[in-house]
Amino acid sequence: MSDSESAIPVTDPFTLFEEWFGEAKASEPNDPNAMALATASESGMPSVRMVLLKGHGTHWGEGGGFVFYTNAQSRKGEEIRANMQASLLFHWKSLRRQIRIEGPLREVSSEQADAYFHSRPRVSQIGSAASDQSRPLPDRQVYLDRVAALEERYPEGDIPRPPHWTGFLLTPTAIEFWQDRQYRLHDRRRFTRPAPTDGWSNTLLYP
């Protein structure tokens, strides 16, 4: 490939995401599905944190999407409920690539949330059920005591999913791919669509 050619092809952005994600799973030493999730409060105050991608693709409802799970009573959960849109950022340092994704959010079904919650290790289920995520904790032992109480209450089998523990699907209206190139002459291509049922358009961006 010459310097004058873009390293980012014109293709379906979900297909390109799958290709890059597959390469990241082969090259990243830890959590290739880690992504920064940016939300904002109703007043517009932004916040960002790392979460894990737990589902993605065109089969996730009309327009496809990217799925993560959380305690809806946490700060991010409350911000999502107040402002149902967000941005995601994947940064794969080993590949020198980034992907930015923007769009509206919707909550997954209770059946989908149950299925993922009960696919997690039992201790992870207990830890989530015991946590008042993002709220003040007077002492770590308080949390550990709640974990122990749930272990005693449910000595075997799955833990009931708390009703406030759920998942959200981001259906993208914009996906931007960034590829590092020598001397910071980077490559950026942005795919956009007005609505989930619309086709994608794309353009290169100055780095």
TrEMBL record:
Substrate binds at K54, Y116, R120, S124, R184, L185, H186. Its EC number is 1.4.3.5. The gene is pdxH. FMN binds at residues 49-54, 69-70, 75-76, 98, 133-134, 178, 188. This is Pyridoxine/pyridoxamine 5'-phosphate oxidase. InterPro entries: Pyridox_Oxase, Pyridox_Oxase_CS, Pyridox_Oxase_N, Pyridoxamine_oxidase_dimer_C, Split_barrel_FMN-bd. Residues 28-151 form the Pyridoxamine 5'-phosphate oxidase N-terminal domain. Its cofactor is FMN. It comes from Qipengyuania aquimaris. Pfam families: PNP_phzG_C, PNPOx_N. One of its GO terms (biological process) is pyridoxine biosynthetic process. One of its GO terms (molecular function) is pyridoxamine phosphate oxidase activity. Homodimer. It comes from the Bacteria. Catalyzes the oxidation of either pyridoxine 5'-phosphate (PNP) or pyridoxamine 5'-phosphate (PMP) into pyridoxal 5'-phosphate (PLP). Belongs to the pyridoxamine 5'-phosphate oxidase family. The lineage of its organism: Bacteria, Pseudomonadati, Pseudomonadota, Alphaproteobacteria, Sphingomonadales. Keywords: Flavoprotein, FMN, Oxidoreductase, Pyridoxine biosynthesis. Pathway: Cofactor metabolism; pyridoxal 5'-phosphate salvage; pyridoxal 5'-phosphate from pyridoxine 5'-phosphate: step 1/1; Cofactor metabolism; pyridoxal 5'-phosphate salvage; pyridoxal 5'-phosphate from pyridoxamine 5'-phosphate: step 1/1. Gene3D superfamilies: Electron Transport, Fmn-binding Protein, Chain A. Residues 165-207 form the Pyridoxine 5'-phosphate oxidase dimerisation C-terminal domain. It catalyses: pyridoxine 5'-phosphate + O2 = pyridoxal 5'-phosphate + H2O2; pyridoxamine 5'-phosphate + O2 + H2O = pyridoxal 5'-phosphate + H2O2 + NH4(+). SUPFAM superfamilies: FMN-binding split barrel (SSF50475). Binds 1 FMN per subunit.
